[in-house]
Design goal:
The complex is a heterodimer of chains A (77) and B (617). Chain A is an alpha+beta fold. Chain A is built from two helices and four strands; from the N terminus they run βαββαβ. In chain A, strands 2-3-1-4 form a four-stranded antiparallel beta sheet, covered by helices on one side. Chain A starts with a strand and ends with a strand. In chain B, the strands form three sheets. In chain B, strands 1, 2, 3, 4, 5, 6 and 7 form a seven-stranded antiparallel beta sheet that branches. Chain B starts with a helix and ends in a 9-residue tail after the last helix. The chains are: A alpha+beta (77), B alpha+beta (617).
């Protein structure tokens, strides 16, 4: 299990959160209970299993709903 | 393509705006309707592109966002060939979002300033002994780092060599230079004003005090109160409902104009953003003034506070007691002093430190059979004599008779607000010491300000004797004060208050009153910036600065008020719009969008006022 902190471009609308949560919900290997979209600091925090999904795949899913990822940090949880 | 459009949104807004302006200008000056129509059509297409994209992305993850409503509205306007409205609505929507982003960034600036204080690089010692600049992420616990004048301390650590003065404002909110030398602790994010030091890293990254503060503040501003969660749930169903409503109106009235106007008017904007914005601004203000507020739930509870309960030692008092009065009885008192010191050296009780400081150097003695009397003192055998040190209860337990004059002294010492340390040797009282803790300077004013802010009861709980407690209470003008309380008595007392229906905050230093911090609705920790109390409490006063407390309370109240204003504004605007749609004929899609975007800006600006909040003296 790894813990990721993903810094996004500035989020401005609360529906962004719903969108990002929606995008991550469909992914296998992410611990859904840990997914936290921090609106004000424009960050996503989540735990994932690195043998099932990579941080790049997670970033891509976020990109796909229209948000730029600025920086990701992964450490073991 | 998608990305290209979204990234160039600002240019799109500009093109869209210019085209609309050209169209209207041409129409007014020459009356030419062809140019007018085409410039508006092109403007609409440009304008709607990013909105359609956002709507598509939202629908893909099954979210009916505002973008979806606006997209349908604009398409509807196209359908009835009302290009004017289509163009203006897209412009207002995009431009509004642009302004929102700007103002939002402003509101978040207080916290951003904080996170930007995080150190980025460090000078790390290599095996060769030289120092090399590395990213702060590459520093591990145990590394030796060099910090030069003007640089940020990159991690929490201990000074190995060198000295200098450090500005710890980023942690304590207090911009005062603090002297550091060999052995001193330094904290990440603080700035070395002068001097050069080498430090060894004790904690790095998110484990540093500064890292923890940032994490806490970031989580706090996004933590949601019950009211917000309700609004969130509401918003989730609200937008689809508006969509259904608009479709029904269209089905029954066959009036597309009316249906799309409802879509635009129904956009939830100010309501969804109003409460979080007050929250962020309030927490940001606190972070700048040395007050950590952990989320909007805390703010809302704290703002409705009835009773504030204080721990005495370390909270209302400085927490560094000293011997204020003493009296000797009988002969051989210097021997007694040696014995007393011998026993007190075995203890780390604050009173012991005060006594030892008073006595100073003494002859070495042999202490045996030490027995600690819980909540009272110590009994031991010293150089073959039975020596009892402690309060009156310990003396009674040891069957030590106090003479009439000694009793009078005990009473007088207590009345003066002292904690008592009695020393008896072989059943005879030899020394009586009164130890007192100094009341924090200016605390009386702070308590008065709390009262003025509407706190009904100020209560002090303490483990000290009632006499001491009464003296402090009278001096500070507290509502009530209870002495002789163990930590569990304190938490039971707070529980009782809560059961009576009061909202209670407990203010303590978090050392031995964590049960009380936890059980009170709001636990306020006097954190020195390093304590674990930062994690367990709801509000942290950085640098143990009691004077932040009135600011914290005032800020919580202002923030709670601000949230209510924003909710009122948001609901009021929607009501006015709907009523005017039903009962007037001037309402249309563009005006609806204008008012809607305007109300969002109004709630953001209202929230921003909190950034400048400060308590009137």
């Amino acid at each position: 299990m790894k813990a990721a902190t993903i810094q996004l471009e500035t989020l401005t609308c609360p529906s962004c959160m719903q969108k990002i949560e929606g995008a991550l919900k469909g992914l296998d290997g992410i611990d859904q209970d840990t997914v936290k979209v921090l609106f004000n600091s424009s960050k996503v925090k989540l735990n994932f299993e690195d043998d099932k999904i990579s941080i790049e795949q997670i970033e891509k899913a976020i990109n796909k709903v229209g948000y730029e990822v600025q920086k990701s940090r992964v450490k073991s949880a | 393509m998608q990305r290209y459009i979204l990234r160039n949104k600002n240019k799109i807004i500009l093109i869209n705006g210019i085209l609309i302006a050209i169209g209207f200008l041409v129409n007014w000056t020459t009356g030419d309707t062809v140019v007018f129509r085409w410039s508006l059509i092109i403007a609409s297409i440009f304008g709607v592109a990013p909105i359609v994209l956002q709507a598509y992305q939202a629908l893909k993850v099954k979210v009916v966002s505002i973008d979806v409503l606006v997209t349908i509205a604009v398409l509807g306007a196209f359908l009835i060939q009302n290009y004017e409205e289509a163009a203006i609505v897209t412009f207002l929507f995009l431009f509004g979002a642009f302004l929102e982003q700007r103002t939002l960034n402003k509101t978040r600036s207080a916290i951003k300033e904080l996170t930007e204080m995080a150190p980025e690089s460090a000078l790390k010692q290599l095996e060769s002994g030289d120092f090399e600049e590395v990213e702060v992420d590459e520093v591990d616990v145990g590394d030796v780092l060099l910090v030069k004048t003007g640089a940020k301390v990159p991690v929490d650590g201990t000074v190995l060599t060198g000295e200098g003065s450090v500005n710890e404002a980023s942690i304590t909110g207090e911009s005062m230079p603090i002297r550091k030398e060999k052995g001193s602790n330094v904290y990440a994010g603080t700035i070395l004003d002068n001097g050069t030091i080498q430090i060894v890293a004790d904690r790095v990254g998110e484990d540093t005090t500064f890292g923890k503060i940032i994490e806490l503040v970031e989580e706090a501003q996004d933590s949601k109160s019950e009211a917000e969660r309700f609004i969130d749930r509401f918003a989730k169903y609200y937008t689809p409902t508006v969509l259904v409503l608009a479709i029904m109106v269209w089905l029954f009235s066959r009036d597309i104009e009316l249906a799309i106007t409802i879509l635009v008017l129904g956009c939830p904007g100010a309501l969804v953003i109003g409460v979080p914005i007050s929250n962020v601004a309030g927490i940001g203000n606190g972070a700048r003034h040395g007050v950590l507020l952990k989320g909007s739930e805390v703010i809302s509870d704290f703002s409705r506070l009835d009773t504030m309960v204080f721990d005495k030692t370390g909270t209302l008092t400085v927490g560094n007691p000293t011997v204020a009065e003493k009296k000797y009885y009988g002969d051989k008192t210097s021997e007694a002093t040696d014995y007393l010191a011998g026993i007190e050296r075995e203890s780390d009780h604050p009173l012991s430190n005060a006594v030892l400081e008073e006595i100073g150097e003494t002859k070495a003695v042999q202490v045996e059979d030490t027995e600690v009397v819980k909540g009272g003192g110590i009994v031991a055998t010293v150089n073959g004599h039975r020596v009892a040190v402690g309060n009156v209860a310990v003396m009674e337990r040891e069957n030590i008779k106090l003479s009439g004059s000694a009793r009078a002294d005990v009473e007088r010492f207590e009345k003066n607000g002292n904690s008592l340390v009695l020393t008896a040797i072989d059943g005879e009282l030899k020394i009586l010491m009164g130890v007192r803790d100094q009341i924090r300077p200016r605390i009386k004013e702070d308590l008065q300000r709390l009262k003025r802010l509407g706190v009904k009861n100020l209560i002090m709980l303490s483990g000290d004797n009632q006499g001491t407690v009464d003296v402090v209470s009278r001096e500070l003008g507290l509502t009530k004060a209870h002495g002789n309380m163990l930590p569990e008595d304190k938490s039971a007392y707070i529980k009782k208050l809560i059961e009576e229906g009061q909202i209670v905050a407990f203010v303590g230093d978090g050392v031995n009153d964590s049960p009380s911090l936890a059980i009170a609705q709001i636990g306020v920790a006097m954190g020195s910036g390093t304590d674990v109390a930062i994690e367990t409490s709801d509000i942290v006063l950085m640098n143990s600065d009691f004077s932040r407390l009135p600011h914290a309370l005032g800020l919580a109240k202002a923030t709670a008020r601000n949230m209510k204003q924003n909710i009122l504004i948001a609901i009021g605007v929607v009501l006015v719009l709907l009523v005017s749609l039903l009962f007037s004929d001037w309402m249309n899609m563009s005006i609806g969008m204008l008012v809607h975007e305007g109300s969002i800006l109004v709630v953001i600006l209202n929230g921003m006022r909190l950034l400048r909040f400060s308590l009137r003296r």
